[in-house]
Amino acid sequence: MSQKVALITGITGQDGAYLAELLLGKGYLVHGLKRRASLFNTDRIDHLYQDPHIENRNFILHYGDLTDSTNLIRIIQEVQPDEIYNLAAMSHVAVSFDTPEYTANADGIGTLRILEAIRLLGLEKKTRFYQASTSELYGKVQEVPQTEKTPFYPRSPYAAAKIYGYWITVNYREAYGIYACNGILFNHESPLRGETFVTRKITRAMARIFLGLQDCLYLGNMNALRDWGHARDYVEMQWLMLQQDEPDDFVIATGKQYSVRDFVNAAALELGISLRWEGEGVDEVGIVEDVRCETGDDRRETPLKPGDVVVRVDPRYFRPTEVETLLGDPSKAKEKLGWEPKISFEELVAEMVREDLTSAKRDDLVKKHGFKAFDYHE
Ligand code: NDP
Ligand code: GDR
Known about the structure:
Helices cover 35% and strands 17% of the residues.
């Protein structure tokens, strides 16, 4: 059988990195679309990099952008992919309120541009298409838990753009017979998660607070409820969706729900800190109740003590319209694709905290040696 060829947009993002690794492991030739940036933006995939001067590479990056049709058409023509995974997006819900037009262009029309390229190039029967749809489509939820049949009610420019991406994918499947699928993925996280999404913001900040590199973590809505899974589990599902006899749309979720506050508690406990919560709304604070640091534990040098306030609410992080609660029902994926998430909430939090503690220790060491450590936080 000839080697399968995949094109991943958004390859420099969290899912792009995990998916590229998965497909390379399966023997694919992987092409990726990366944006030109003023700084290197390939941190998450540097371990997969292959010197462009060697022959027979199976990992090839192309400069491109979802807002540039001619660029997309040229790359798809050159690559002749068997599978396209459209993961690229302006993916931050809060930021989409600041950049609504760009978000619509990249996340909505960007999806159309790829589907049109498939059609214009006559690849309808060859190229399978995966669209990164999202639980944000449910927004103001109409039913609990959410399934493939639950009505959508988007609550942000991001979700409104993604709803266009969802429906244009369905339409090109029905109109032109393209094998095109929507993965309606609920939140999925990992140590590769962008630092401004709430989970990574929490694990990174708690590790830094633990080592005395940061004083306090400022958050927005502590009561938001999410169904959090692990990105490594979820990219497997993206691939599986393109390997079926018929294209279809699937909800990918764990079926379990936690609040932002639960996530903070879990991350703190992983570090040996128990928190107590006082106040309400913008006055809510998370206070250290106990710090368990046993002798011999390499984490024992924490400067924290009971009574320290380590979490505060900052209304700056509230959104004009919030998605208060999301909970997915992944029964269809389980039944039709035999898929179930393998990594639990506790394992996810533990892995993220562990990785962020390692980075924080590195920053601490750099600082102790008189060099400037990277200390940007939102
Ligand atoms: P990330 O934000 O980590 O990655 C987004 C990727 O898209 C990055 O590679 C980014 O490039 C790239 N990108 C952004 N804008 C453009 C553009 N105009 N042209 C080309 N590339 C662009 O997102 P995730 O990996 O977490 O998510 C992957 C996809 O899945 C996204 O579409 C997201 O909306 C969707 N999704 C994510 C969920 C989650 O919980 N993670 C849940 C449901 C859906 P750069 O690195 O240069 O910024
Ligand atoms: P979300 O993820 O909006 O669900 O979108 P995010 O982690 O940004 O927010 C989750 C919830 O936490 C609340 N929250 C905060 N969020 C951020 N980012 N920063 C804070 O300080 C903070 N405090 C509280 C939010 O209000 C929200 O309720 C993610 C993205 O990956 C999308 O691309 C994807 O489509 C959806 O998940 C499914």
